[in-house]
Amino acid sequence: MTESTELDAEDRKIITLARSARARNGVAEGAAVRDETGRTYVAGTVELPSLKLSALRTAVAMAVASGATSLEAAAVVSEAGAPAEADVAAVRDLGGAGTPVYVASPAGEVTGTF
């Protein structure tokens, strides 16, 4: 994890979208990813009896299902702090090692980058 740096408008946008998904759905986490064409995919935590997915893995799955071949950035908003290693791995699988994963508090304050 690295300390947060100044974010550009597009990165700030995915954090805002992740916050909105969390609040709108009343879930533990909200996430958003941006693909290589600038499209965004937004998701919340999935908690069903037979299916449990983090918000970040859900957003990555939505991107893949929609035809994305790469990711430029990802954001997750949660009170829990750092995302699980498997969540970051899902982003890396599609985006590569250099794809930033921004972590933000529910208030939108960036607390770190993975």
Task: Show the helix and strand layout.
Layout: H1 9-25, E1 29-35, E2 40-44, E3 46-48, E4 51-53, H2 55-65, E5 71-78, H3 85-95, E6 101-104, E7 110-113
Parallel strand pairs: 5-6
Antiparallel strand pairs: 1-2, 1-5, 3-4, 6-7
Short description:
This protein is of the alpha+beta class.
Note down, in words, how this protein is organized:
- The protein is an alpha+beta fold.
- It has one domain: Cytidine Deaminase, domain 2 (3-Layer(aba) Sandwich).
- It is 34% helix and 30% strand.
- It is built from 3 helices and 7 strands; from the N terminus they run H-E-E-E-E-H-E-H-E-E.
- It has helices spanning 9-25, 55-65, 85-95, and strands spanning 29-35, 40-44, 46-48, 51-53, 71-78, 101-104, 110-113.
- The chain has a 5-stranded mixed β-sheet. Strands 3-4 form a two-stranded antiparallel ribbon.
- Helix 2 packs parallel to helix 3 (85-95).
- The longest helix has 17 residues, at 9-25.
- The model has no long low-confidence stretch (mean pLDDT 94).
Number of helices: 3
Q: Between the first and last Cα atoms, what is the distance in angstroms?
A: 5 Å
Neighbour order of strands in the largest sheet: 2-1-5-6-7
Mean pLDDT: 94
**Poorly predicted runs:** none
Strand content: 25-35%
The CATH architecture assignment turns out to be 3-Layer(aba) Sandwich
What kind of assembly state do the chains in view correspond to? single chain
What coarse outline follows from CA principal-axis ratios? Answer: globular
- Element pattern in H and E: HEEEEHEHEE
